[in-house]
Amino acid sequence: MSKQKKAAVINDISGYGRCAITVALPVISKLKVQCCPVPTSIFSNHTAFPTYYFDDYTDRMQPFIDQWKALGLTFDGILTGFLGSRKQIEIVAGFIRDFGKEQTIVVVDPIMGDHGKRYITYTNEMCQEMKRLVTLADIITPNLTEACILTDTDYHEEKWRLEEIRDLARRLSRMGPKKVVITGIPQGEYIANYCYENQDEQTMKEKGQFLRTIKVGTQRCGTGDIFAAIITADAVNGVEFEVSVKKASGFIKKCILKSIEMEIPLTDGVCFEEVLDTLKA
Fold first, then answer.
1. What is the C-alpha separation between 196 and 142, in angstroms, rounded?
2. Please, which residues bridge with residue 54 across strands?
3. Tell me, what's the pLDDT at 138?
4. Distance (Å, rounded) from C-alpha 171 to C-alpha 166?
5. What Cα–Cα distance (Å) separates residue 258 from each residue in 31, 252, 275?
6. pLDDT tens digits for 195-228?
């Protein structure tokens, strides 16, 4: 078998708008990791557009996965993105249990909400299932809203103190993942990610750091998918977690600046293709 690294990516496919698997596949490939998609649904374009075509793939996910099991495929990484139902979360948990070997790094991007509110499609039941899925992860990449949902913490608009963010990260890590990055933390003119590693449970040795960058432009679709894709590819390539988070943040900033320069509509996401050659494994 090939020694090239492989990562399974479980997410939807959106034909237009640059998000989900559409951005994860080229980014992971650029980082010299084979990207193996598991589609959860098919969209003509993402849901920020006025209309879209949608095909739910839930009933076909398990037969799709069963073929991989029959072939005895193995993966160095597993990345999960937006999941549209409790059933999908259950299927993904089963996928992780079946394919998550000792050397497999599992990254869960718990896409549930933003700006203090969960997405309208996310029920209480689904949030509880996501909490269970997170226990199977090695790395999670929640935004501040999702970190609050996962830890049953009240979200507030005023400035978050370091102690509050550190406590959120610790509580998330105690759920299972050794590494946590809480993304999109507003700090005045800056936007920050909090990078946390639980290095030794017995001695309670930990490492946490704010990584800040000047805020540019407006939030765009797909940037979280790009971020999680870089974290996943870097993890299976053995890149240090903090270095990977800095790389992902810097690359997304380049994407946003280029999109502003080229006057790309917000609904079209970021024109990452224009700067993809700057992304190095």
1. 12
2. 43
3. 98
4. 9
5. 20, 10, 8
6. 999 876 665 678 999 998 888 887 899 999 999 9
